[in-house]
Amino acid sequence: MISTTPQKIRRLFIGATSAMLVAGAGMAAPPTDPAVLAARQTISTEDMSRLVQDLSAPAYDGRLPGTPGDIASRDYLVRLFRSIGLKPAGTQGYLLPFTTTITQPDGEDTPANPALGRVVKTSNIIGIIPGNAPVLSHEVILISGHRDHLGHAPDLQQYPGANDDLTGVAATVELARAFARIRHMNKRTLMFVAFGAEEQERMGSTYQVDHPLPVAPNRNIVLMLSIDMIGRDFDAWSGFSQRRMDRFADRWFAEVYNGTDSHKDAYSFEYPDESDGSDAAVTYDYDAGAFAAHGINTRVIGLATDPNYHSPADTWANVHFDPMLPVTRTIFDFVWQVDQDPAAHAGE
How does DSSP assign 6-60, residue by residue? Predict the structure, then answer.
């Protein structure tokens, strides 16, 4: 997540609101099909931990855009997307290249950091599972995390960015693996994205929404989901019952198309529709903001309350992986409900 003010954090995350159901909205139930439940169960704490440990290692040097560490993380994730069997959906295979300016090389605009002000090339990594329903396959559900971080300080101390946001990338990859197991069952097209340069001036999400891909024109994206920092302050989820997790999935689903902009809970929020230029002050705090600015439905799941936020202490050892399993499985249930909704929503 890019730097944000305490006021914004309070606005986005403090206080829970009750769900509001919209009369007449298409309804879908949590997954009950044995094949779907089996796919859900394959979501693995170990796999998520391994990815975070690998990409937060010193060899990746904090994954600042345009650096060897950024390129290495790109190649690592492309190999994963290919091994899962996702269909390439970028302009260059899995890649959507773009250019950004480094404005936060170490979390600040530090003049002593030689990376400050550099114009560099980086990329989003994009793969899809095409939809299967004749009428709904053109609708797109976008599931994402951001793969970049802040590089290193002038004294070469690294910013590993394990929670911010390798936890979101790990969840995105696990969701892709799970849905790939039932790739003949999804109605809509599922798009999985590891965004680049979320921490910098030209965010990969901004570039993508400003340069829509043929497979996913903006009018066809019915939900943009940003998973950003789920590795701290979700500890309570380890003790949640399935019924309680179902209530989160049900609430998030009920709020996708209801046209309000006030829905948040202790772990997530929706951006308001900012296509009219309103509320621009919070537009770019997360990747989802760029899509909300185009009137696309969003949900951000994650907390910017990590005491190690934007610090060298954001390491693999400080991520709480056990709660990530129920969180990611609940996201699976949420996405499945959006996917299986019988009503068409593209262009609303």
Answer: HHHHHHHHSS-----PPTT----PPP-SHHHHHHHHT--HHHHHHHHHHHTSGGG
CB 62 within 8 A of CB 151: yes
CA of 201: how far to CAs of 2, 44, 109, 116, 307, in Å? 10, 34, 11, 11, 24
Instruction: Give the chain's count of helices (H) and strands (E).
Output: 9, 8
CB 131 within 8 A of CB 147: no
Q: Report the pLDDT averaged over residues 167-195.
A: 98
**Smallest Cα–Cα separation from 205: which of 259, 142, 160?**
142
Joined together, the tokens standing for residue 185 give: 């069952």
Q: Quote the pLDDT of residue 17.
A: 34
Domain locations in the chain as residue ranges? 6-14+53-331
Asked if pLDDT for residue 182 goes beyond 70, the answer is: yes
Dig out the tokens for 45 from the structure. 């704490």
259-288, pLDDT tens digit by residue?
A: 665 578 999 999 877 666 655 444 567 999
Query: How far apart, in whole angstroms, are the C-alpha atoms of residue 311 and residue 157?
Result: 10
- 140 φ, ψ (degrees, to nearest 5): -125, 130
- Among 148, 127, 168, 141, smallest CA distance to 2 is for 148
| DSSP class per residue in 118-185 | -EEEEEEEEEEE----TTTTT-EEEEEEE-----B-TT--B---IIIIIHHHHHHHHHHHHHHTTTTT
Q: Do the Cβ atoms of 288 and 226 come closer than 8 Å?
A: yes
**Nearest Cα to 35, choosing from 140, 141, 183?**
183
To the question of domain 6-14+53-331 being in CATH 3.40.630.10, the answer is: yes
